Fold each of these.
Amino acid sequence: MCTRKMYHLTMAMAVGSMLFWPQAGWSMDAADAPETVEINSLSKSYGGVHFDHAMHTGIASCEQCHHHTTGAEVTNSNCIRCHAKTGEEDSVSCKDCHSSDRFSKKDLLKLEDPKLYHIDKPGLKAAYHLNCVGCHQKAGGPTGCQDCHTITEAGEKMFQTGKFAPAPTAGSGHGGHSSH
Amino acid sequence: MKTTVSRRNFIKGGLAGTVAVTALKESSSQAATFEGYPDGMGVLVDLTRCVGCRSCEAACNQEQKLPPPEKPFDDFSVFDEMMHGQKRRTDETHYTVVNRYDVPGLEHPLFRKIQCNHCQEPACLTSCFVNAYTKTPEGAVIYNPNVCVGCRTCMIACPFYIPTFKYSSAFNPRIMKCIFCYDTRLKDGKPPACVEACPQEALTFGKRNDLIKIGRQRMVETPGKYEDHIYGEHEVGGTAWMYLSSVPFDKVGLDTHLPKEPILNFVKDFLGIVPMVLTIWPALFAGFHLLATRKDWLKNKNDDAHEEE
Ligand code: SF4
Ligand code: SF4
Ligand code: SF4
């Protein structure tokens, strides 16, 4: 109930803020965001994640995941040196900045620019996992692979688990004596 | 028998010895200036990021077509396995293993992936008297199993205990270790399979020189998070795979007493004794070979005798 009320309140505030500052077109609020997000552009060994965005807006602020984007003023003193108003703060989606092909020849070549500051920007897969797992470790959220993903057939094959599990070897100790 | 170990073979052995000594001398004089290929690639392993998911192990097994593991790669009981009081090690069926380290005072355990570190001046290479090893300009330390005689010198020389052997038969030893996915990936500029599989980018692939900059930047941007040292930047003359850690490196099983100089220099000192070994080994192997082919040899000898007659 309470969260629902909060939701309406935020919604109202969001609408309100839009009325008051219509020029801030890039500005976004948690309530403008979709309730769930399918994060699956990379899925291979594991299926994508049904990310409950609405739930997470209740426990984390936007910039904890989206850095400086989505409406909040850039405040990080390190970022603001360049990014007070350079446009990057308009993008919301992780993949707008984080490459899905981080170690390709092409991407590695970009690092050769001697003026480049962001020489260590994680690729998309790492951006997701470092963000999620990092917080989950601190906040006691789930951290196991299959807590968030379902493993695919390709995944079972690579991990040699499930129907691709190795046959139990004779005399390999415990395991085969569960019931009598 | 002693005389039948034959002048021919003895001379052959002696020649092999001389060749090996010459080769070693050459590479040791080069060592003064050689500090690795400038554009060599590497991997920066950040232990603060590794979550011990073993994806890298699974990917390596698949990429290198290694035999099936005893337990699935999503079985984490392997972290409790001990062999002779030691954590898991790489071997001929596991080019890489991840181990868990419970560090006192840390809330979470740390995990470290082990594989060949692809040294800039590899001791395995310099110690090998049949030149089975090559350091490629891309940074990989690869080997030619066909010339390997199974003497295990590289096993003893490697400061990280990496090379292991597969004995499919006593006369066909085959050295086995991580090859940085050279054949299938690195030579085409692609990242190794383990790097690609890692969800956390605990493994960062790039030019070794860039990786050092990246490591430094991580230290600067997160003060206090890391030990102020990139393990492998200087150890044993530098390695292509390097490590960042939040705890002293010996707490995660890395040898912190390794010299900064390449092991080669020590091998060089050691060489005072080696030439004798070098002349003995080939003779010994020639002897083995002779035993194995004695029948043919006897036949030839008889033929020779007939010819002489
Ligand atoms: S880690 Fe060992 S096997 Fe690998 S290159 Fe260095 S000396 Fe050779
Ligand atoms: S670089 Fe290739 S061979 Fe070496 S551990 Fe990674 S996947 Fe295995
Ligand atoms: S895949 Fe990455 S995070 Fe997982 S165990 Fe290997 S190095 Fe660690």
Amino acid sequence: MFDRIREKLNILADAAKYDVSCSSSGGTRKNTNKGLGDSHASGICHTYTEDGRCVSLLKILLTNHCIYDCLFCVSRKSNDVKRAAFTVDEVVELTMNFYRRNYIEGLFLSSGIFKNADFTMERLLLVVKKLRLEQNYNGYIHLKTIPGASDELIKEAGLYADRMSINLEMPTEAGLKLLAPEKNHGEVIKPLAFVQQQISQFTADKKLIKHVPTFVPAGQSTQMVIGATPESDKDIMYTANTFYKNFSLKRVYYSGYVPISNDTRMPILGTQPPLLRENRLYQTDWLMRFYGFKVQEILNDANPNLDIDIDPKLSWAIRNMQHFPVDINTADYKMILRIPGIGVMSAQKIVQARKFGKLRIDQLKKIGVAYNRAKHFIVCLDSPYQLKDYQGTQIKAFILAESQSKYLKTDNNQMILF
Amino acid sequence: MTYIFDGTFQGLLTAVFEWFERKPGKVVLKSTSIFQPEAFVESFTVNTNAEKADRVWAGLQNKLKKDWQRKYYCTYLSEIPEAYNHVFQFTIYIFQNQLGAESNYGNPHVIALAKYAKSVEREKHRMEAFIRFQKTGDGIFYANIDPDFNVLPLISSHFKNRYADQPWVIYDLKRKYGLHYNLTSVEEITISFSNGADKQNLAPVLMDEREALYTTLWKDYFKSANIVARKNTKLHLQHVPKRYWKYLTEKVPI
Ligand code: SF4
């Protein structure tokens, strides 16, 4: 019994790990019934894997049996791997016992498709109902929506899950067709739209009637695999932008393709996953969501791909030197946010602090501004007088020269945001 | 001039009261534990007084919003000698200036408190993440910690709300006190470990019989979740500095 459950967990955790979403944030389920657990708006990473990714949820498949044959997926029908399936009770018990020991924030449950979509979705629903109704469990639940499952099942699941997600898999329809001929984006869009419409319905009702149950309170997310098919960064981010807009997604995840197959339509085994590119895409995603950038400003026909050697905020600044230098002591908050080397926190502090007097270089440094980077784009009270205007390309060379030594030592896989 | 206080929060607030009472000019605040008499520097020992402390705290509550009251308390909990002095100077600065003076990030004490509070909050957040309970034979979920700062007061409500249906104990080995939740309320406790008892690891005989199973399953899970092709040790260490490994079931070798 001991060995059997270990084996199942190993197989079904291994198969689930390529889904990058780890977020446990956005839920605000309170522990009102003196039961177990609650969930925080900010989420908690309980540990990090050796590849540096956050572990917040027990991320498993109910089963890795699947009737489909998507080329990019380890669980595809034609792949020769060990198969396993949890019982509903096994998942419930694992979740409860891991949660009680403070190992996890909750459960992320997905599944291969066995028999058909509804049959699979029903099993997933059984797990979440048991957790919520029988075990008084208030921890976080992220549930995969199974494409093709009926509206009734999806709607019921939404009453118990905090977040639901369904993966686009490939950034464009053409890419998807290439690797998973049985699938299409339409299959993903339909349930996304359905859940989105339910969420707004429930939110609207809640304004009128107090005791409307919550419905997927942490919203929906999706994931795209990067680098398995030849899309440009522009294709990827325009798709992401459309999905953020049309379905009010909470997150889009970009997952650098880790080669798992020798099929010649994709990068072969042993190819390095495109981690730096993945990082640049996340940076762009942040610029869109928190820094007030429009995707068209960062990626367009003239610049269809992100620079690899510098981050997208710096590239934008260098291409748009007409906006600089920015006067720290007078500029709009919005413009301060756009300065390379200044993050959201520092920008807020600057706007508060300058009410008490004009700011100097040493104060900016203390506030947390990366001054060596920012200095090319700002003036403050004691900025040295500059004789000539540097060109964007020269500034890029300065910054690169300065960060080169650091950059080389940290190899190319760092996840650093600005 | 040096003011010496006993290291308690009330003592610190009392020191502020005394300063306003006497207005002795420039003063540095130190706690008894680090104070060493220096020649030519006058010193004054603050007698902690609950009433005076309350008056200062009430005054601060009028001056500072909740988020800054919290930063203030967090800085105190850092237990760092210089932090005590910054809190002291900050208090004087706040009382001597208009409402809103705390958002002057150009002021050295304001920025110091913001920084200390951030470190303490980070340690609090780490404890909420890295604490691992072990279920004992009598059904209590038990965890030892020895955090960099005194964060037990800050994490109490988080664990109480989350683990409302299980009794638990979190024990700070460094500061020799802990919290015990008994299904209704959280109480402070001290435990006298008998000689030779291994404080870091409870003896297996004291454990629930299923504890070993879940420890193993969690270690297994941690291994399976890793993607070898993406290995990034530097990033891993940045998130989980080595000094926290002793907490982590998944990091402790079998
Ligand atoms: S349907 Fe899902 S589990 Fe099945 S092969 Fe495709 S991606 Fe993998």
